[in-house]
Amino acid sequence: MNNNLLNDFEEYLKNNLPLSNSFHPIFQDSLQSMLLASGKRFRPMLMLCIVDAINPLLVKNSMSIALALEYLHTYSLIHDDLPCMDDASLRRGHTTLHKQYDEATAVLVGDALNTHSFNLISNSPLSNDIKISIIKIVSNECGINGMIIGQAIDCYFENSKVDIKQLEFLHIHKTAKFIACALQTGAIICNVNKDLQNRLYNFGLDIGLLFQIQDDIIDKTSNQKEALKTTQNDINKNSFINLLGLKEAIKSANKLSTKCQKDIKSFDINIQNNLNSILLPYFNKYK
Amino acid sequence: MNNNLLNDFEEYLKNNLPLSNSFHPIFQDSLQSMLLASGKRFRPMLMLCIVDAINPLLVKNSMSIALALEYLHTYSLIHDDLPCMDDASLRRGHTTLHKQYDEATAVLVGDALNTHSFNLISNSPLSNDIKISIIKIVSNECGINGMIIGQAIDCYFENSKVDIKQLEFLHIHKTAKFIACALQTGAIICNVNKDLQNRLYNFGLDIGLLFQIQDDIIDKTSNQKEALKTTQNDINKNSFINLLGLKEAIKSANKLSTKCQKDIKSFDINIQNNLNSILLPYFNKYK
């Protein structure tokens, strides 16, 4: 089922790229460039897999919400890669936007994708009540009390140490809350009760943290070609590797992975199957 | 009436500053800094004056929408001042954010204010139908087909000439559409008919263009101290002064000013009075 969902999403994305009608010779290309670069589409897929598991008839009308999540994720990558932040030159196997074009373009494309994600949500074929619920959570989890404060902490403490609790705070905010919000958004679209919404959200926090630890491990152990992005760039950064060492980081990842696999079993069988079809490759990656 | 509205808004702003609860030592201060710096609050005041003219009972419930407009305007100033764009050191009489803190902080504060404006709108005490209408228009006029493409054109053509039609396109998108959208948002809150919404929007486009021409004149004729921001920074920029010369630019400003004053008279008397109380100081500024 997953490949079908992913194909449908990729098709939807290609047919709904952001358009900017003006005499600017490269802005529209720059807007579309990083969206067209291959991505895992992890956040939209998590959201769609929940909708597909609970009420597959709603998948079609959820596509623009999925696209909005991909816009938000892409904007965050573009800004994170800027010279004043990670100063990365490779992303999704492509030259980063500020290298391909220039810094002003990268800042503005990020801004545009951020703002336009709310335009996509507000224009999606769902009820206004559902759309407002989605905007409330997305603007919170990707905003001041979510992704942005996480990135701000990551940048501010680049050359000074944080402790393990602070590192967890950093990554829960920078990465996990958005992933949790993607799962909850799927549940909101299907209008399920608050309890299931919260359970999916909390499960998403664990998945997000697992991913971040794995990302740190990839950054340490992979070369740029394998990772499709600038790696080994985090020597001075606060990472689970730098704080715990590689061996302990792998142990933490495996422990969290076991917890997530157990938690998946608490959901009904359709949700279990759909989550597993996306997440299995990420569980128990390290021996 | 205007001073009361402005005082109420300033009070509301001070009591509703963005909070970011974390161990980051300066992020919350940096978030609030440029909002607290004195601004004209032009966009929120335009919106509130329309609500006050049509249905004053709705003013109180419109405050968070007004604040969202100020967040969006402030984010755009912070990003426009970045080294990769205008590279300005003074704004609203204060050191620009990237100079006071650093570039990463300025990018992230801008991002945070952009995203959080949609959080404010979605949580405002208005009906979900009204809130979705507002989000649709705000995310469009401040986004890809509004403010952002205007700024992108401004940056891209910094060292090459555009013609007068292109300069108008630039400023309609960079400045006027947001101002037009502020007026229309007031009308949306009061649930007035589409015709009045459109007339206010179109009037806003003229006001926005008038402001931009006046801004170019200020930039040419004022020093930094008077303007409270970096001036005479636009030598290579496409401005009405550089394209038309100072004399013709003043003539254009006066012509547009006369048109706006005539158009105001087409609105009902309450709207006329409220618009005039904000706009009169800007009409016929130059002899």
Could you give a short description of this structure?
The structure is a homodimer of 287-residue chains. With 287 residues, chain A is mostly helical.
What does this 3D model show about the protein?
The structure is a homodimer of 287-residue chains. Chain A has 287 residues and is an all-alpha fold. Helix content of chain A is 70%, strand content 1%. Chain A has a single domain, classed as Farnesyl Diphosphate Synthase. Chain A contains 14 helices and two strands. Chain A has a two-stranded antiparallel sheet. In chain A, helix 7 (128-141) packs antiparallel against helix 9 and helix 8 packs antiparallel against helix 9 (164-189). Chains A and B meet through helix 6, helix 7, helix 8 and helix 9 of A and helix 6, helix 7, helix 8 and helix 9 of B.
Question: What order do the helices and strands come in, and which of them pair?
Answer:
The structure is a homodimer of 287-residue chains.
Chain A: H1 2-15, H2 27-36, H3 42-54, H4 59-80, E1 90-91, E2 94-95, H5 97-100, H6 103-122, H7 128-141, H8 147-156, H9 164-189, H10 194-221, H11 224-227, H12 240-244, H13 246-264, H14 269-279
Antiparallel strand pairs in A: 1-2
Helix pairs in contact in A: 1-3, 3-4, 3-9, 3-14, 4-6, 7-9, 8-9, 9-10, 10-13
Give the key terms:
homodimer; 14 helices; Farnesyl Diphosphate Synthase; 287 residues; mainly alpha
Instruction: Please give the domain count of chain A.
Output: 1
CATH fold call of chain A? Farnesyl Diphosphate Synthase
Helix content of chain A: 55-70%
Main β-sheet, spatial strand arrangement of chain A: 1-2
State the secondary-structure class of chain A. mainly alpha
- Identify the quaternary structure here: homodimer
Q: What would the average pLDDT of chain A be, to the nearest integer?
A: 93
Biggest β-sheet description of chain A: 2 strands, antiparallel
Question: Biggest interface and which pair forms it?
Answer: A-B, 55 and 55 residues
CATH superfamily grouping of chain A: Farnesyl Diphosphate Synthase
CATH class designation of chain A: Mainly Alpha
Radius of gyration of chain A: 18 Å
**First and last CA, distance of chain A:** 29 Å
- What shape does the CA trace of chain A take? globular
Unreliable spans of chain A are: none
Taken as a percent bin, the fraction of beta residues of chain A is under 5%
